[in-house]
User: Which sequence fits this backbone?
């Protein structure tokens, strides 16, 4: 009997020690999952493909993100990521009050087109009060005014077989010894043609400020903040994302974030 | 009679009963693995913005935060600081600032409880969503199997007799008088009912409410939980409750006889207390 009790006690102590040991030693045994391209990571990354397919199947292509009332705008739009691009092209445009700015649509289109800000502002506009959800976890409600992207793409005429829109930006999100890395991201054509996907030039009834992406920022309202490219200058229609950056379809995507960004 | 006499006296054993179906056993261990990874990757994600709010958005120009974890500079040097429900706590060494004194790390939760152990939101998300899918898949399998094989009706949903027997069972548990019967006790049923019908659905739905895509598909999620940021706060709160459940669960397993408990969750067979009436299908 006493032997059994000792064993029981030993078992309890042993399991408690083993349990706390696991906690105290930390979880660096799983740090290998952080290696981009690790085979185990590539397997578990497939869950993101599943999420994308599930959400596309579940959510109607035209279904809108929630729009809020004016009274729910309680603060300015929090700037994040690049807030003051320092590339020569951007500094020149900024100094010229974006007069020479043009948005170019190219790639798999019938005709390459480009528009000045004045031309974009003269097109039919859409204003929406939406919630911006950052991948970090915070949210901020703001009013965005801009030109719906779909009709702009139609003016260029998207060719059959096109699958993605790549959004090229002015901002040097990362500066390395081998030069600046410019921000870019991409979406499928469902998001590009979504009624709330607008080329925003206005924020909270004012001209879009530099810290929030002046002169033009794309809103993709059913996705996280890193799918809302600021300082946008070119939209390239493609059927393959691998030629851009490190091939994952965006700056943050190249750094291990999921491409879809809807969760 | 002490609580583990039953397992000590070979002469006075109750019958060995088949208590856990293969569906219950497999999903149990799948969840154990999933919840481990979900917790540690979830804390990694939380560290990217270590504050919890009430409402649709996060107040930057006003304060709607319930919890903030961070580090502050004081005359004595940097300290970890946690503000919870308006109360400020010095949490140096645990929250906001941890690690060796020579090279402290300024993350909300320390690297010992995050995956990866260093700051890496992208990897935290990859791990979280992978195990989230498996967790939800196992939940569907378990609900379906338990509905069909009667586990839900027999062991999880508390009936009139369980409600009537609850005060007595509470008193027994308080005296560490654990019964090794054929069926779950009222308190066990109630705990598992809360986990399966309240906590698990809540943590899945509040998780989905944080998805801007899901909010477009199911806008009622935002109304149900009172906003995306409230949903994020509830998600965190349910995590805390599940961690508490886990601790109690482990303590109960250890008190009730860990080998017998482990056997029943691995092979399905559970040794009942002496005097338990024998039924067809039991083993001696």
Assistant:
């Amino acid at each position: 009997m006493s032997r059994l009790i000792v064993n029981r006690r030993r078992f309890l102590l042993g399991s408690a020690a083993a349990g706390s040991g696991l906690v105290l030693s930390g979880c660096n045994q799983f740090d290998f999952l952080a290696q981009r391209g690790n085979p185990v990571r590539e397997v578990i990354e497939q869950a993101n493909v599943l999420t994308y397919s599930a959400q596309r199947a579940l959510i109607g292509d035209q279904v809108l993100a929630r729009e809020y009332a004016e009274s729910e705008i309680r603060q300015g739009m929090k700037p994040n990521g690049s807030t003051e691009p320092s590339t020569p092209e951007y500094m020149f445009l900024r100094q010229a009050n974006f007069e020479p700015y043009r948005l170019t649509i190219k790639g798999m289109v019938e005709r390459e087109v480009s528009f000045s800000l004045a031309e974009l502002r003269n097109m039919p506009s859409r204003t929406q009060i939406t919630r911006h959800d950052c991948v970090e976890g915070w949210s901020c409600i703001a009013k965005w005014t801009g030109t719906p992207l779909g009709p702009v793409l139609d003016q260029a005429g998207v060719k059959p077989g096109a699958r993605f829109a790549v959004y090229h930006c002015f901002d040097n999100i990362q500066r390395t010894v081998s030069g600046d890395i410019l921000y870019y991201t991409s979406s499928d054509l469902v998001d590009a043609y979504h009624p709330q996907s607008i080329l925003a030039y206005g924020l909270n009834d004012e001209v879009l400020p530099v810290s929030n992406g002046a002169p033009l920022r794309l809103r993709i309202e059913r996705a996280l903040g890193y799918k809302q490219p600021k300082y946008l200058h070119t939209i390239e229609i493609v059927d393959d994302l691998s030629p851009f950056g490190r091939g994952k379809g965006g700056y943050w995507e190249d750094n291990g974030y999921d491409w879809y960004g809807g969760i | 009679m002490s609580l583990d006499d039953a397992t000590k006296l070979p002469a006075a054993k109750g019958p060995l009963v088949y208590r856990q179906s293969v569906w219950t056993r497999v999903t149990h261990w799948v969840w154990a693995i999933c919840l481990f990874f979900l917790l540690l990757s979830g804390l990694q994600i939380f560290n990217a913005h270590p504050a919890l709010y009430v409402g649709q958005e996060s107040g930057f120009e006003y304060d709607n935060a319930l919890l903030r974890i961070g580090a502050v500079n004081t005359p004595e040097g940097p300290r970890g600081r946690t503000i919870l429900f308006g109360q400020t706590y010095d949490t140096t060494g645990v929250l906001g600032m941890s690690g060796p004194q020579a090279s402290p790390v300024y993350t909300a939760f320390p690297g010992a409880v995050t995956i990866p152990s260093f700051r890496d939101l992208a990897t935290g998300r990859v791990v979280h969503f992978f195990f989230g899918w498996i967790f939800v898949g196992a939940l569907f399998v378990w609900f379906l199997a338990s509905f069909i094989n009667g586990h839900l009706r027999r062991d999880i949903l508390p009936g009139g007799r369980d409600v009537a027997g609850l005060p007595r069972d509470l008193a027994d548990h308080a005296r560490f008088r654990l019964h090794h019967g054929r069926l779950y006790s009222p308190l066990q049923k109630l705990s598992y009912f809360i986990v399966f019908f309240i906590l698990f659905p809540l943590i899945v739905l509040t998780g989905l409410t944080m998805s801007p895509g899901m909010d477009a598909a199911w806008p009622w999620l935002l109304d149900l939980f009172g906003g995306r940021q409230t949903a994020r706060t509830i998600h965190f709160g349910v995590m805390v409750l599940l961690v508490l459940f886990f601790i109690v669960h482990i303590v109960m397993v250890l008190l009730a006889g860990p080998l017998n408990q482990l056997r029943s969750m691995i092979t399905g067979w559970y040794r009942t207390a002496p005097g338990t009436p024998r039924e067809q299908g039991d083993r001696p």
